């Protein structure tokens, strides 16, 4: 775990709100000079705390109207079969997120597609073609209440 001070936490908070902020704008918002802010941002990037900068797209405005969560149970739990599943699912553009979970299922997929017909094709043709799937269970999103990518930033305790 990395030690973050108040300034690091504030930088991360500001960049999570608007990743397009330039170093000069960050320094103004923080009441600090340019160079220390620049060096802190570069350090946060170098340490992998800031992984990348992205544009968040409104999925519905680009025709991706259906979001589903798909639980997957594997038939076999060997390392090789697990790695094959992860590699195959990672290559599927419909899968936005994939989590290895505990409980009745092994994986949880967040899938985004145009409509129910496209989800059915995804399920039957892509997931259905994988050899190690034991069972699937789909949950369909009816309404999005909260969707955030921002983590709360608190300075590390010393």
Automatic annotation (TrEMBL):
Keywords, in A-Z order: DNA-binding, Transcription, Transcription regulation
Protein name according to UniProt: Lrp/AsnC family transcriptional regulator
GO molecular function: sequence-specific DNA binding
Gene Ontology, cellular component aspect: cytosol
Residue intervals of the HTH asnC-type domain: 4-65
InterPro entries, alphabetized: ArsR-like_HTH, AsnC-type_HTH_dom, Dimeric_a/b-barrel, Tscrpt_reg_AsnC-like, Tscrpt_reg_AsnC/Lrp_C, WH-like_DNA-bd_sf, WH_DNA-bd_sf
GO biological process: regulation of DNA-templated transcription; response to amino acid
């Amino acid at each position: 775990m990395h030690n973050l001070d108040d300034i690091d936490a504030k930088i991360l908070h500001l960049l999570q709100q608007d990743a397009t902020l330039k170093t000069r704008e960050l320094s103004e918002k923080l009441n600090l000079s340019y160079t220390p802010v620049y060096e802190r941002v570069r350090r946060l990037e170098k340490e992998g705390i800031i992984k990348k900068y992205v544009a968040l797209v409104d999925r519905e405005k680009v025709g991706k109207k259906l979001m589903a969560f798909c639980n997957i149970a594997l038939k076999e739990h060997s390392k090789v079969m697990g790695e094959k599943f992860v590699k195959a699912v990672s290559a599927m553009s419909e899968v936005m997120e994939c989590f290895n979970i505990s409980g009745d299922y092994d994986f949880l997929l967040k899938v985004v597609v145009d409509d129910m017909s496209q989800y059915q094709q995804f399920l039957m043709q892509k997931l259905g073609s994988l050899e190690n799937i034991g069972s699937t269970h789909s949950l369909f999103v009816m309404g999005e209440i909260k969707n955030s990518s921002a983590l709360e930033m608190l300075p590390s305790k010393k």
